[in-house]
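Workshop exercise sheet. Pairs work together: one partner reads the sequence aloud, the other fills in the structure field after running the prediction. Swap roles for the next sheet.
Pair: D.N. / O.F.
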Amino acid sequence: MSGSERPNVVLFMTDQWRAKDTGYWGNGVMKSPHMDGLAEEGAGFRGCFVQNPVSTPSRASMASGWYCHVNGHRTMHRMLRRHEPNMLRYFKEADYHVWWGGQNDMIAEEAIAASCHDRVGGTGGREAFNRSPWKVGDRLYHTFLWGEVPENYGMSLSDDYVAEQATEFIKHPPAQPYFMLVNQSYPHPPYAVAEPYFSMYDRAGVPFPIRPPEGFAGKPKILPMIHERMRMDEITEDDLREIVAVYYGMVTKVDHNLGSIVAALRKSGAWDNTIVVATSDHGDFVGDYGLTEKTQNTFEDVLVNVPLAMRVPGCEPLPAVSEALVEMIDLLPTLAEACGVELGHTHFGRSLLPLLRGETTEHRDYVFSEGGGLKTEIHTHETARPREDIYWSRPALQFTQPEVHGKAVMIRSKEWKYVRRLYDTDELYDLRNDPDEVNNLAEARLAAEARLAIDEASLGSIREKLGAAMLDWFLETGDEVPWRWDLRGYGESHPEWSEAAGRHGFLRDASRE
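Structure field:
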C-alpha cells in the first residue's frame, strides 16, 4: 500500500465514558449525536470491553495488543517502555506523522520521542479553575460531585485546547498520512461541568442508578468499604440524580469536541480517506451500586463496557448496531491491517475488519478483564493519599488492607459473567435475567431465589465451563516470546520474521544493533 493510498487515522479516546451512556447503545435520554453519527456512518458496538477497569493498564493493553498479565502491565505506574511495542510507534516507523494530544497513561517517558512527532497538552497558557466546592469533612467531599463550574474548569479547558489543536493540525496536514491520538479527560470525575451542559439534563428524567444488593450481599468486600469511606450512605436520591445529570452533561460536552474534529475532517477534504475511531479507556460507577468513580479489581459492566464507534473508508455502514463481543486490544491489528502497517510482535488482538466489511456478525465467544495485585506487591499500589485527598477512599485501602485489592479476573460471554478472585468471593451472573449484576449465583446462600429454573447442577456446569475457558485463555496468552532471535552460532542468520522484529527495535537493550 503506497503512501498516497494509506488512510489517515484519528483515534478519539475519552476517559470513563460508559457504553450504556450513548444514544446508539439504546439510551434514549443521552445526547451523543457525534458518537451516534459515527456509529451510523460506520459501525457501533454494544459489546466492546476493556482489559482493565482503570486507565493505564487499559491503555497499555490497547496500544500493545497484550492482556495486562502478559508483561506486567496491570498497575497505574507500569507503562510501555522502549523495548516494548506500542501502536503509536508502529505508525511512526511506518512513515505516518504521529500527533498525540492530551493525557498519557500509556507510554513511558523514555519511549515518547520514539512514538510520536508532536506531543500536545495543557491549556495553551489559559488559567484553569480547579477547586472543590466542599470543605474537608463535608458529606459530599469524597463523592466527586462538584456540580456547576466555570468554563475554565481544568479538565474541560484542557480537553478544549487539545481538540482545538487537533482541528488546526487537520487544517494544515503534513505531506505523509497522519495518525492522531486525541485524548480527552472528560467525563472523568469530579462530576463537574459548565453551562449549558450543567442544566442540559432534567434531574427527574435521567435513569436512576443501579441499587446494590442489600448489605452488598455477594459483592467483593472492597465495594462496601469504599461506599462507607465515600459516605455514600449519607447522600440522597436527589444527590444521586445530580451525579448522573452532571455526568451526562460531561459526556455531551466531550461528544461536542468529537464533533468539531469530524467537522474539521470534512471541511479539509480528509474525511473520505480517514479512519475515525471513538471510544473510552473504561467506565465509571456514576452512582451505580452506591458508588462513584471506579475500582481496580471489580468488573461490573459499567466499568468495563465502553462505547466503540468507528468508520473505515471502503467499508459500508453496518445495517444495525453490532452485538458482537469485541475487546479493546482488537484495535491494534484492525488499524494496522487497514493501513498496511507491519507488526513485529506476538499480540492477542483480532482484526475487526471482517465485522466492518459485513463478512460476519460474530467475533469472540468471551471477553476478559483483570485487575488487582498480590498482597505482597506493594509496587502495584497507587500513590498513597492522605484523607484530605479526594481520591483517598480507594487507594488508601491498598496499603491498609491489600487483600481487598487482590488479583481478580473476569470472563464474560453474552449470557454469563464469572469473576475469579484470589482472596475474596467469586462472582457468577446470569446476564439474561440479571443484567444489573446484583444476584451473585456463586454464593449458594444468596442464590436460591435468583436461580429460577437454573438448578444446582446446571450452575456448577456453567461455572466449570467458564473456568475451563479462563484456563485456556491463560495458557494461550500467558506470555509472549519476542520475535527477534538471539543467534547461537556464527553460521546462523536471522529469519525474515526475526529481521522484521529487529526493524522495529523492540529489543531489551532498546538498540537496533
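Discussion prompt: The chain has two domains: 8-481, 482-513. What would you look at next?
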